[in-house]
Amino acid sequence: MTDKNNLSPVERIKTNSNGLRGTLKESLLDDFTGAIREDDQTLIKFHGMYQQDDRDRREERVSKKLEWLYSYMIRLRLPGGFLTSEQWAGLHEIAENHSTGVIKITTRQTIQLHGILKSHVKPTIRDFNLQHLDSIAACGDVNRNVTCTSNPSESPLHQEIYELAGKISEMCLPKTKSYYDLWIDDELAIDRKTEEDPLYQDRYLPRKLKIGIAIPPNNDVDVFINDIALIAIIENDKIVGYNIAVGGGLGATHGNDATYARLASLLGFVDTEEKVLKAVYEIITVQRDFGNRSDRKLSRLKYTIDKLGIEGYRSEVEKRCGFTFEPAREFKFEQRKDRYGWVQNHEGKWFYTVFVEHGRILDIDGYPLKSGLLKIAETGNVNFRFTCNQNLILSDILEKDKAEIENLLKEHGISTYTDEVSALRKNSVACVALNTCSLALAEGQRYLPVLVTKIEPVLEKYGLQNEDITIRMTGCPNGCGRSPNAEIGLVGTAYGKYNLHIGGDRLGMRLNTKFKENIGEEEILETLDELFGIYSEGRHSEETFGDFSYRYLQTIK
Ligand code: SRM
Ligand code: SF4
To answer: Where in the numbering of this chain does the Nitrite/Sulfite reductase ferredoxin-like domain appear (predicted)?
Structure first.
């Protein structure tokens, strides 16, 4: 149980927040600064926003005796990652009017906008509201965006888990109405009765909580990195229940050995949807009651699992549920990557997966991706879905509309780009990092594309250019681009320096291991050159780079 005498400062901010309102109203009205009050910086996260500043411009601002250039990032709550074409067109306009203009697809299947000035925060949320979109609980010590295997319309089963993602998201929403008071209605209409929150109470969770749902054989959601992982078990083309795993999480802190990345451990199997929802709910209440509220570095559910033991955690959940878990059932993942290009579903509808490098949708010279997508949205004949690999699926296209979409994809260079990029690039993920992330030690999405261009010829030298090797980069060890769960992981340590990790498997079932510490580009390329050389000569037939390097690491121990 939590040491009540030694609570982290964030605990006080939450319980004293008057339903997450704090002094946000006053902070927003203060024209003297682009920032908000310190405690409000914690509370605004629960409303799906972060205060940030442009780190590229810090020195310039200080030299001009100006405060840092503060702005806000807003993240949408989109369980299962879905927008209609009307919503996409609306989002395009909102991005143009209020943010840097770049639409960013995140590694949790949703959208972020960056660079929103304080005076634009409310108008942005209001415009989202007009599109029936919200950012409630997209950040903060609550359940975050629920992810599920992409392409919900691919089969009736996909639709079923997409709906489950929505139900879990709804069940786990905080009951406070402060989001609407603060950002939409302009009134503090607090009705204590309707704000009573049996799940979060007034202290919320000790830390963020993440839930993902996968349908084997596809693990595109990287399900085991979630605090709660649901794996659909299919028999005779029907979902007969879910294996539930708990305790995934990738964040760690350099130099703090008490912190670590961890994949979720199987708790057991439950059959009906009612039981799944109850189990998820009570897994959360156990974390609420037993999670560490003193040291936020050790407060994720993975540490609670390791403290109570998987048996201890299970028996507490079972006690609260009033039923027991069956032993976990057999399942097999066979792939984790997105299926680029055209795919047709069981109803004859078409889907086109667009490769979007690190989820950044913008127009650049010679590649008008963002304008092309707007034109596609304006046809009204497609939906937009997002993948946990930061890509976009144009979905639910009828046979009669396919040619029109195909032409627009060609006209804007989108299909040519998706077809032509290398296998390595298609399997690359990077986090945002600089210039907006306050925790970044090194570059992420701005640098991995450059590095991949330098790695491509090295792969070609060994005839490995068509291998689907996963490479992921994060600007720090928090793992937002899931670098610990890749065949090649690059984890920022300082500007231009990374730890190089290898030996993770391709399917997201085995974390990688640190191989080289704090190295720059030259040494990264030299090391990979050497490893690819040994791999091309010494690999077993069909052996992936991740499995080979895992084996190689055992031989050099
Ligand atoms: Fe993350 C914090 C971006 C997915 C683990 N993450 C942050 C912040 C908000 C930095 C901050 O706290 O000030 C980053 C904002 C950067 C920016 O400028 O936008 C940030 N995380 C992201 C995104 C946008 C990366 C991306 O390029 O796609 C992803 C948004 C997901 C979403 O839509 O909700 C994102 N973050 C992840 C993931 C991957 C996942 O969930 O699939 C992880 C690893 C899994 C996990 O949670 O363990 C992840 N983010 C973290 C952590 C480490 C938490 C921990 O347990 O130690 C932090 C730091 C923290 O919470 O203190 C963090
Ligand atoms: Fe920022 Fe680190 Fe997350 Fe990258 S991994 S977005 S640098 S917190």
So the answer is: 72-126, 346-411
Distance CA 474, CA 484 (A): 9
pLDDT tens per residue across span 486-504: 999 999 999 999 999 999 9
Find, among 389, 485, 385, 477, the residue nearest to 437 by Cα: 477
Q: How far is the CA of 186 from the centre of ligand 1 (A)?
A: 30
Give the C-alpha separation, 113 to 361, whole Å: 11
The pLDDT of 27-42, averaged and rounded, is 97
Residue nearest to atom 35 of ligand 1 (CA): 480
Rounded to whole angstroms, the Cα distance separating 523 from 129 reads 49
pTM, to two decimals? 0.97
How many angstroms separate the CA atoms of 22 and 350, rounded? 47
Mean pLDDT of the chain: 96
Handedness of CA 356, 358, 360, 364 (dihedral sign): negative
Q: Is the pLDDT of residue 187 over 70?
A: no
Token output for 276: 């799944």
pLDDT tens track for 276-332: 999 999 999 999 999 999 999 999 999 999 999 999 999 999 999 999 999 999 999
The H-or-E segment that residue 534 falls in is helix 521-538
* Residues designated as active site: 75, 144, 208, 210, 431, 437, 476, 480
Structural domains for the chain: 49-135+338-421 (3.90.480.10), 139-337 (3.30.413.10), 425-556 (3.30.413.10)
